[in-house]
Design brief:
- The chain is α+β, with helices and mostly antiparallel strands.
- It has one domain: Orthogonal Bundle (Cytochrome p450), CATH 1.10.630.10.
- Helices cover 47% and strands 9% of the residues.
- It is built from 17 helices and 13 strands.
- The chain has a 4-stranded mixed beta sheet. It has a 3-stranded antiparallel beta sheet with strand order 5-13-12.
- A hairpin with a 2-residue loop joins strand 9 and strand 10.
- It is globular and about 65 Å long.
- It starts with 10 loop residues before the first strand and ends in a 6-residue tail after the last strand.
Length: 408
């Protein structure tokens, strides 16, 4: 979007609010908190751009994630019930009940126990590329480490990880002609999960999926569709988001040498300064441009606009996280700002359940790449990096780098 000219509504999301839309977001914040927009092949939506509005609406019980409240027949991916009954698609008591059950399996102990394993995975991937002197750190590190980790967490054999990766990527980019068609990806994901759950029932192990199968809250337990849908969500959200967190983070470190120097000064990935750095990268360079769609249960006034009940609303998390009304000098990484208020993992009841694991993976990958690949630098100019053209994600398509080759 050209910030020197006024824009007209509805805004074309594909043209103006995709990939790296930060200048456009700034204009939206200046012009008001709520704007109408259109997506390719879909209906009109409302885009909410200011921090105060986005944060409030993320926890407002009048905003529903359930598609039955859409007055325009919103279908989204059109997933079958066996994959659709997950935490991102239910509200209120149904959401609290399901989250309570899965939280009993997704414990801090289970995540903490993965720390050494995550480090070993990252070390192994970097050892494989170290002799080469160049790599695509998106495909050779960022896209692989989270997949291996999430497979280990769920108890999926690593040999099956590539199959799940193909399905999740096709679902994230349904219009990409180089990926599987949507129907084929959904059918394949469902078939694989059915077989996996059957095996875990027959031979339970110390993994998250086995724990979810047996999770109880009194007499309550997950239904078959809920179990399948949650496994699908953990695979999808737990893999794809972390991939882009790692890639975006490494790109930021290499584009701003002072940040890479900061990482070199840290003795391990889990220091307070590393934690603060990851929070700031999540705020400024996080992969989520918007939250999952929501539907007002009643007419709402947002900023100076009236949004009718049942309209599709997208909360622009990436815009909120750069709102100068809340964050001073929002385009800068400032480890002393105390950015706990950022919305990179959401806010309120739908706050990301896997946030602790994602944070740990990102810290580990950033620190290890900087420490183990001497003279690590971008192989192209930062302005020539290629970004996905999607209104949902701020995500690289490749991260080419060079470094001093290490003996095998």
């Amino acid at each position: 979007m050209n910030t020197n000219k006024p824009f007209t509504e509805p805004i074309d999301m594909a043209q103006h609010l995709s990939g790296c839309p930060y200048d456009a977001y700034a204009q939206l914040r200046e012009a008001g908190g709520a704007h109408q927009a259109v997506r390719p092949g879909a209906g009109a939506v409302w885009v909410i751009s200011r921090y105060a509005d986005v944060k409030a609406l993320l926890s407002d019980p009048r905003m529903s994630v359930e598609t039955r409240h859409s007055r325009n027949g919103y279908e989204g991916f059109g997933l079958p019930p066996a994959l659709d009954q997950n935490l991102m698609n239910v509200d209120a008591e149904a959401h609290a009940r399901m989250r309570r059950l899965v939280s009993s399996a997704f414990t801090p102990r289970r995540v903490e126990a993965l720390q050494e394993s995550v480090q070993a995975v990252v070390d192994r991937l970097i050892t494989a590329i170290a002799p080469n002197g160049r790599a695509d750190l998106l495909s050779e590190l960022a896209a692989q480490a989270p997949l291996i980790v999430i497979c280990e967490l769920l108890g999926i054999p690593e040999s099956d990880g590539g199959v799940f990766q193909a399905f999740t990527r096709s679902l994230m980019s349904p219009n990409d002609p180089g990926l599987l068609p949507m129907r084929e990806a959904v059918t394949g994901m469902y078939t694989c999960l059915v077989g996996l759950i059957e095996r875990k029932r027959a031979e339970p192990a110390d993994d998250l999926l086995s724990a979810m199968i047996t999770a109880r809250d009194g007499d309550d337990r997950l239904t078959e569709n809920e179990l399948m849908s949650l496994a699908f969500l953990i695979l999808w959200a737990g893999f794809e988001t972390t991939v882009h967190l790692i890639a975006n983070g490494i790109a930021a470190l290499l584009n701003e040498p002072c940040l890479a120097d900061l990482v070199r000064a840290e003795t391990d990935p889990h220091t307070p300064r590393m934690a603060a750095l990851v929070e700031e990268l999540l705020r400024r360079d996080g992969p989520a441009l918007t939250s999952i769609r929501r539907f007002p249960l009643e007419e709402l006034k947002i900023g100076e606009r009236i949004v009718p009940a049942g309209e599709t609303v997208l909360l622009a998390i990436a815009s909120a996280n750069r709102d100068p009304q809340y964050f001073t000098n929002p385009d800068d990484i400032d480890l002393d700002r105390g950015s706990a208020g950022h919305l990179g993992f959401g806010h309120g009841p739908h706050y990301c359940l896997g946030a602790p694991l994602a944070r740990m993976e990102v810290r580990t990958a950033l620190w290890t790449a900087i420490h183990r690949l001497p003279d690590l630098t971008l192989a192209i100019r930062a302005q020539d990096l290629s970004w996905n053209t999607d209104h949902r994600q701020h995500a690289l398509t490749a991260l080419p780098v060079t470094f001093t080759a290490q003996p095998a």
